[in-house]
Amino acid sequence: MMTLSLCMIVRDEEKVLGRCLDSIGNLVDEINIIDTGSTDGTKELASRYTDRIYDFKWIDDFSAARNFSFSKATKDFILWLDADDVLPEGEQEKFSALKIFLREDIDAVSMPYILARNEEGMVTQSVRRNRIVKKSNGFRWFGSVHEYMEVGGNVISSDIHIVHNSQKTGVSTRNLDIYEKMLGEGRSFTPRDLYYYANECLDHKLYERAIEYYQKFLDTREGWVEDCISSCAKMADCYLALEDPENAIDQILNSFKYDIPRADQCCRMGFIYLSKDQLDKAVFWYELAASLDYEAAKAKGGFLNHNCYTWLPHLQLCVCYFRLGQIEKSKHHNQMAKAYEPTNRMVLYNEEYFQSLTEQEE
């Protein structure tokens, strides 16, 4: 059987690290913890699980820390996780089976990464990431922030879900500060840097600067198609925040140059036209969103807003058709939304309202 090293970089993670290691520790052959400057009890907690704990001086470079962590692995394959990631109990048996399945001719294994769930536990955002790589291939990380690993060869797509379960609140300035430092030093930005710097600007409500750098990213014509589509979507969000819906519409339409429409883009268009009380146009875009194939979109590999492929367009169509006086269609779409989210408070409110209308008619 192939052996497996777990490699993690951590800092001040005593609140979540134990939860992560409890979920995966018994399924790997080695745990390597790279501490980048904790001032809490992170290292003491990690020592309960492994004696392979190493210090790494933080130099504002996540790839450097990741590559250092990989250098400490001694087993056949490497698994990487963050401290606030968890392998759910239901996935652990599948992980054990996967480990038995690992062979010399496998170069990497990708896994779905669950980024967000709603109150009912349904996935609302996910992406697929390469999680396990063969050590002898020497795959490396690149990028000071939002680092990525260049992987090739025989890559297996697993259905084992890793869940991101952060307990941190608020928006950290850490990544923005690193990018600003890079700019101050005159360092060149790769297309990926341009895209993720724009994301940081958006997160911090620096809308004009975000638009500037999304456009610079698109102008390189070197970005991943999913990031290009996302850039258009996020520029549209910036323009909406700046109360400029016409430019928002232009950016959404620009996204269609890269591939068939995504449901979140269609929902943005529907929202804009609903806000303008142009109900026929809103219906068109929400109907299109509701018709799009979620599985086909998921296969593209980008970040997905699951809500836009499931209940959200139906809930909005309920509103549109009600305002158009088409009550039966409004009821129908509320029921469609309920099929996806049976406890959604807005859906239940609509259901009660329709019931009250029926009682009044009787």
TrEMBL record:
Pfam families: Glycos_transf_2, TPR_8
Cross-referenced InterPro entries: Glyco_trans_2-like, Nucleotide-diphossugar_trans, TPR-like_helical_dom_sf, TPR_rpt
Highest taxon above the source species: Bacteria
Domain Glycosyltransferase 2-like: 5-142
Listed name of the protein: Tetratricopeptide repeat protein
Organism of this sequence: Falsibacillus pallidus
